[in-house]
Amino acid sequence: MARTGYKSVDAYVAAQPQPARSALERVRATIRKALPRATEGISYQIPVYKLDGAMVLYFAGFQQHYSIYPASSHLVSALKKELAGFLHSKATIRFPVTDAVPTRLIARIAKLRAAEAAVSKARRTKRAAPKRARSKTRKKGTRSGARLR
For 50-103, how does the pLDDT look when each residue is reduced to its tens digit (9 = 90+)? Predict the structure, then answer.
């Protein structure tokens, strides 16, 4: 049974089986280089990278493969040829631990996800912006614009 309750990405990577551990160290270094302003942490018991508080990318290791999440429809269409054979499900990109780590592809994934996260955050900020209140000028001696008698 896999250990849970990781407090850091270091602890997560160190707890992985050896074939995956080496690959995850390369994946981590690649993401950190591609997203130098990103903060890393643990969420859902796997490593997460955030920019300005917005989630950008997760990764997870297993005995036979490692995965990167989420693969948005925009990302999949932008990298369709490069992701051929690696797309496992609708939102998961899976790489075998026996293959060389595709650092260029992972860097492109990270940068595309960062751009998507920025756009998404801008949309949320725009929707959350307070609307201007309408002027409530009343005539003297009136309540809600109606004359008092």
Answer: 999 999 999 999 989 999 999 999 999 999 999 998 988 889 999 999 999 999
What six digits make up the tokens of 104?
């260029």
Which CATH number fits the domain that encloses residue 118?
Answer: 3.90.1150.200
Q: For residue 133, name the pLDDT band (cuts at 50, 70, 90).
A: low
Q: Rounded CA gap, 22 and 74, in Å?
A: 29
CA angle 60, 122, 77 (to 5 degrees): 50
Q: Say which residues have a Cβ less than 8 Å from residue 111's Cβ, sequence separation at least 6.
A: 34, 35
Domain count, the chain: 1
For residue 54, the cross-strand partners are 51
29, 22 Cβ separation under 8 angstroms: no
Give SS3 for 94: strand
In a domain, 2, yes or no: no
Domain range for residue 111?
A: 9-128
pTM: 0.79
Which 8-state DSSP code applies to residue 84?
Answer: T
